[in-house]
Design goal:
This protein is α/β, with parallel strands linked by helices. 39% of the residues lie in helices and 16% in strands. It is globular.
Length: 342
């Protein structure tokens, strides 16, 4: 094999023993999980916002951001349920670039996977313990989910992973909502098939074990736009797109029909400042059609303390080192406006 085996890493059980979840934090997560599940089951009409940095690149600015979200959540609690994004693994289209805290807990240093495993668990524990937020992360590596399964309240399967069998089967064994994004090429049947697979039971190999999953009724879709064969970005959040998705759900027989709209990526053609406008348009579609209102459960928004992005090493506190995000002032204004519109 053309690889060097550097060291054997501890298994999730051992890491959890060293970094346990405090009982009060575990109780807060259980309460939050039920609130979120009620939204997906149609028992709670609040709007979900999965919101936060493109990638969690440093503990202190991420925690500063989440503490601000905590204050904002209390202001909009009657209309909006916030799930902070703490994305600790970053998919790379070409394999190049910063791959997230899991790989590099210090973006300016060499990769260190052991330090990364510990740092991402500590960060999620701190977020839950200090704010009561069970957060969201991307399931880039399905075998790593057990490292955080007692901390996360939401999982996303990205556009590059949604057709992967192991992602689908692992999602079928989770007891929290799992969002399946449409693939980068935009084929909605791929996304719908992923949700179908995740909602069904399976027997498969996971972390060296033969396991049986029971199916995840909270698996759902995420529309994030797509790129055509010429490399041009196209949105799929418009009224007509949502009606089409509602029709696909009606034909599918899937449980708990639901979609979240990603306001960035190809939906904004990576014009990050367009996210508030896109969010408001989606809510306008909901007002105009009860079927769409029932289907749309929330939005995914890329937001951080500062507008835009920076290169690694520039050192601006709370500014993304991956995709650009909207800054806090615009974020706060947008969330308050969405609460009024919803």
């Amino acid at each position: 094999m053309n690889m060097e085996f550097q060291r054997k890493l501890p298994i999730p059980m051992d890491i959890k023993k060293d970094y346990p979840v405090p009982p009060a934090a575990a109780a807060a997560k259980e309460k939050r999980d039920e609130e979120i599940a009620r939204v997906f089951r149609g028992e709670d009409d609040r709007l979900l916002l999965v919101i936060g940095p493109c990638s969690a690149d440093s503990e202190e600015p991420v925690m500063e951001y989440i503490h601000r979200l905590r204050v904002l959540q209390d202001k909009v609690a009657e209309k909006i349920l916030i799930i902070p994004r703490i994305y600790t693994n970053k998919p790379r289209t070409t394999g190049e670039g910063y791959k997230g805290m899991l790989h590099q807990p210090d973006p300016t240093s060499r990769p260190d996977m052991l330090a990364g495993l510990l740092s991402i668990r500590r960060l999620h524990i701190r977020a839950l313990s200090e704010t009561g937020f069970g957060c969201a992360d991307e399931m880039l590596y399905p075998e790593n989910h057990r490292l955080l399964n007692d901390l996360l309240s939401y999982v996303a399967v990205g556009a590059r992973s949604v057709e992967n069998q192991q992602h689908r089967l692992t999602a079928s064994g989770l007891n929290i909502p799992v969002g399946m994004k449409n693939p980068t090429g935009g084929d909605l049947s791929v996304m719908m098939n992923a949700v179908r697979a995740a909602q069904h039971a399976h027997t498969f190999i996971y972390r060296g074990w033969e396991v049986h999953s029971h199916g995840n009724p909270l698996a759902h879709t995420i529309l994030r736009g797509y790129v055509d064969r010429h490399g041009q970005a196209h949105p799929n959040y418009h009224y007509e797109d949502l009606r089409e998705l509602a029709g696909l759900y009606a034909e599918s027989g899937l449980q708990n029909p639901a979609v979240l709209i990603d306001t960035n990526h190809s939906n904004s053609a990576k014009r990050w400042a367009e996210q508030p406008r896109i969010a408001k348009e989606v809510l306008g579609s909901c007002r105009n059609n009860p079927e769409i209102r029932h289907l749309v459960k929330g939005l995914m928004i890329e937001s951080y303390l500062e507008d835009g992005c920076q290169k690694i090493g520039e050192g601006v506190f709370g500014k993304s080192i991956t995709d650009p995000c909207i800054g806090w002032e615009k974020t706060e204004q947008m969330v308050l406006e969405l609460a009024d519109l919803w």
